[in-house]
Design a protein that fits this description.
The structure is a single chain. It contains 16 helices and no strands. It is mostly helical. Helix 2 runs antiparallel to helix 6 and helix 4 runs parallel beside helix 6. It is globular. It starts with 23 loop residues before the first helix and ends with a helix.
């Protein structure tokens, strides 16, 4: 029985491509290291011709992955940006209205500890949830993972918006722990979403993984810009927090719509339907084969079942054995970044600090710490579209560059950090006494974080397949692309969690 015209596999139009044009997928040159060369053979039509890759019209699929990258970080960035809101919620309510509630000795323990507690609980939740996502990546479909992550995230932010307008002064302690628990769950669920999005992007050409990485940087930049705008406008903490959390809820809802729209675009259907291990439109097709294809089309885009592959332990062990340099690189990159930013960088003050001065007192930290880093991080991630040095396979070079970034930790600690406690012992001298130092160091931190982090996330999954092609048959190739993406996301999460814990120690030493 021949395939019907409305089958999801009947993709013959290249939508603008030349007839007979050879693509990297068709060449399968073992000397090429791009992920396109590792894609499965093209499906064939009943007359034996090869189905051609459709065009990503108007770059819609690219934009969707870019937005999904934004959605993985923007909610959390909005959450931590609302510091003034939490200062207000956990203030000393016995103070007169004309006394500032977030400066000097009037600050409460909850005001002082909210950021540290948020960091610890969120990163622990992040690590736990991404580990669970890795374990069940082959047992739970990506659609289920996206739904069970995004729907609760939307609910959490809607609930948070409601609590913004509710008076919580009479039960501050309870609201404090409610905030921590909801934030921890939100971050953990975001980790599941992030791992799923990165795993899915690994089934596409490398530029779509770049889109996800760039989207994350865009999310950080947007939150920094919004924070500066809120400070400049002088909005009260309740109004600004209401806008932050409502925007986060809307962004998460749009992410769900964007993800499922991939199933209605010809270009994304081509890569998702032609996953390795799935049927590829043979000329003579039984009803059973059509049912299998229909399962792919019906959003079951996972790897083959565990019975068809290695055991779970072997599955990830073989992947990690092949791409451990990139796993180590992404872990080191984000460990150093989180050790410095924002914990240490946000403590740096201008050497020309003057109270009530618009630049040195109000905008120095939001601009130099948050905006500058996020803009440079975005530039670093974007640069991988044009420059990829070290190249794929040059693992010693990229690991060495990641290790060299450790020098950022003592350098930032030697910038102008003024401690209000005269009895606090400082372990490193403030020798970098010029405002240019934190600016230059933060530029370098952001650029290297974006560039090396994206490069390792790009090369890791494709290097697995490249090793398989260059060194003979292997059980780890593009068939395991989603698993490789999840492993790299786990490495990134491990680095983030380790860096957050290290930053708590470093803050005690400056």
């Amino acid at each position: 029985m021949q395939q019907s015209d409305n089958s999801p596999f009947n993709i013959q139009s290249c939508e603008g491509g030349e007839e007979g044009e050879e693509s990297p997928v068709d060449r399968m040159d073992p000397n090429l290291t791009e992920r396109e060369t590792l894609l499965p053979p093209r499906p064939r039509s009943p007359d034996g011709s090869i189905y051609r890759e459709p065009k990503d019209r108007f770059n819609l699929v690219f934009i969707i992955f870019l937005y999904l990258g934004v959605a993985t970080l923007l909610p959390w960035n909005f959450f931590i940006t609302a510091k003034h809101y939490f200062d207000f919620k956990f203030r000393n309510t016995s103070l007169p209205d004309d006394v500032p509630y977030n400066v000097g000795n009037v600050t409460t323990d909850m005001q002082k500890n909210i950021e540290s507690y948020l960091s610890i609980m969120s990163m622990a939740s992040n690590l736990i949830f991404i580990t669970l996502a890795m374990i069940f990546v082959r047992n739970v479909s990506i659609n289920v993972r996206m739904l069970i992550s995004l729907l609760p995230i939307i609910a959490i932010f809607i609930t948070t918006v409601v609590f913004v307008v509710i008076d919580t002064d009479s039960w501050q302690q309870g609201f404090f722990w409610l905030t921590l628990v909801s934030a921890a769950f939100m971050v953990g669920l975001t980790a599941v979403m992030t791992g799923s999005v990165f795993g899915l992007s690994c089934l596409f050409p490398p530029r779509y993984t770049q889109a996800v990485m760039a989207g994350q940087a865009v999310g950080g930049t947007l939150s920094a810009v919004v924070n500066i705008a809120a400070i400049a406008i002088g909005e009260d903490p309740i109004s600004s927090a209401f806008g932050f959390f409502l925007t986060a809820a809307v962004c998460s809802a749009l992410a769900l719509v964007a993800y499922f729209s991939l199933y209605y675009l010809k270009y994304s259907k081509f890569y998702m339907a032609n996953q390795p291990g799935r049927s590829r439109a043979p000329t003579n097709r039984s009803d059973e084969d059509k049912d299998a294809d229909r399962g792919v089309y019906d959003k079951n885009v996972e790897l083959p079942s565990p019975s068809q592959l290695l055991s779970r332990r072997q599955f990830f062990a073989v992947i990690l054995k092949k791409m451990w340099p990139y796993f180590l690189t992404v872990c080191l990159v984000f460990l150093v970044t989180l050790a410095c930013f924002p914990a240490i960088v946000s403590l740096i003050t201008s050497v020309n600090y003057t109270q009530d001065d618009p630049w040195t007192d109000t905008f120095f930290s939001p601009v130099v710490c948050f905006l500058l880093f996020n803009v440079c991080d975005l530039l670093g991630r974007t640069a991988t579209h044009f420059i990829q040095i070290p190249r794929n396979g040059q693992t010693c070079g990229i690991v060495t560059l990641a290790c060299l970034r450790l020098v950022f930790i003592p350098l930032f600690m030697m910038c102008n950090i003024v401690d209000k406690d005269p009895h606090h012992k400082k372990y490193l001298p403030d020798v970098l006494q010029n405002d240019a130092w934190p600016i230059v160091l933060n530029i370098a931190l952001g650029l290297s974080n974006g560039y090396l982090g994206t490069l390792s996330m790009l090369h890791g999954p494709s290097y697995v397949g490249t090793c398989s092609m260059l060194h003979g048959p292997s059980q780890v190739d593009l068939d395991h692309a989603e698993g490789a993406g999840m492993v790299m996301t786990f490495g990134m999460t491990l680095g983030l969690a380790s860096g957050s814990v290290l930053s708590l120690l470093l803050v005690k030493l400056v």
